Amino acid sequence: MDLNDDGAVDLVTANYGSERMGTGDTNSVQPNKGNGTFRRKHDFTTGEYPKSVAIGDVTGDKKPDIVSTDEETADVSILKNDGRARFSKRLTYPYQEPSQGAVGAESASIADLNGDGEPDLVFNLSGEAAVILNVPGPCHDTAYIE
Q1: DSSP per residue, 55-120
Q2: CA pair distance 69, 47, nearest whole angstrom
Q3: Cβ–Cβ < 8 Å for 14, 55
Q4: What is the C-alpha separation between 58 and 40, in angstroms, rounded?
Q5: Distance of alpha carbon 90 from its chain centroid, rounded?
Q6: pLDDT along the chain (146 residues), means of 10
């Protein structure tokens, strides 16, 4: 997805276990130069052990944001895009593990699940699915599906 509105698709990675490579618990963004090569990467802090990323406008400002699952902390992180592929300090949405066997989130998706026109978050909890509905106000509903 084009993160900096220059017409070229950019690269985003979840850097699971990357602390031994000196990048810590981060997502990396590499802007596309427009010729199939990429600029130097920029790292943005996430929760512990980011495992998956999804990209979409989850903040309603018409700019693609990064949603990251954090395996160790059992959080979902949102990095808000400023429109130039620079991202704010993460917004964290913790969730409770629904069963003893579930661990941190492994994959993330963004979709309008309840038909209200707002992007909702879906993530995998080691065999169970969790949903965070994007609703107005300070409270977000979470559902678990076995």
Answers
A1: EE--SSSSS-EEEEEETTTTEEEEE-B-SSS-BPSPEEEE---SSTT--S--EEEEE-SSSSSS-E
A2: 8
A3: no
A4: 26
A5: 10
A6: 94 79 77 94 87 91 92 82 90 65 73 90 78 65 46
